[in-house]
Amino acid sequence: MKLIILLLASNLFAIEPTAIYNIASHYTSKPATIVAISCVESQFGKYKGLHAAKGVCQLQPDTVRFIATKDSRLRWVNRCTDNQLSYVLQHNDYLNVMISSIAFKYRLERYGYKSAVMRHYKKGNLDYLRKVKESL
């Protein structure tokens, strides 16, 4: 029942940066970076995407499925179809920011800060890194 409620919860408007920071702070030591990523990716949810990447932090279902293999808190992802997962990423800001924060923490521990930021966007892009840094 909790999963159904989480799947149906949605935000129709842009999320406030302070809300993104508060969510991210539970899952990563660098919540300000998640705020900056969400600013660069979707202007805090104003543009949530109509293509493969979805939501506040523009996550792709394949990325989420990979991160779910690395973190047991995301094991519910395996019970979702691609359409369900895309819907959640598009419409549930809390889960989108949570998953992005968990993914960032994984990349941070594995690759270091600079690469963790760049890997959020097509596995490395210095222009993207610059934009995120400017948004901090």
CATH topology: Lysozyme
Query: Which structural class do you get from the secondary structure elements?
Result: mainly alpha
Overall structural domain count: 1
| CATH architectural arrangement | Orthogonal Bundle
Shape: globular
- What fraction of residues sit in β-strands? under 5%
Level of helix content?
55-70%
Name the CATH class: Mainly Alpha
Number of helices: 8
The count of β-strands is 0
- Taking pLDDT < 50 over at least 5 consecutive residues as the criterion, the unreliable ranges are 5-11
Largest β sheet strand count, sense and barrel closure: none
Compute the CA-based radius of gyration. 14 Å
Notes on the structure:
The protein has one domain (2-135): Lysozyme (Orthogonal Bundle), CATH 1.10.530. It has helices spanning 2-8, 17-24, 31-42, 61-68, 82-91, 93-111, 113-118, 126-135. The chain is globular. The N and C termini lie far apart (38 Å). Helix 2 (17-24) packs across helix 3. The protein is mainly alpha-helical and 136 residues long. The chain has eight helices and no strands.
Give me the secondary-structure topology.
Blueprint: H1 2-8, H2 17-24, H3 31-42, H4 61-68, H5 82-91, H6 93-111, H7 113-118, H8 126-135
Name the descriptors.
mainly alpha; Lysozyme; 136 residues
Summarize the structure.
Helices cover 59% and strands 0% of the residues. It is built from eight helices and no strands.
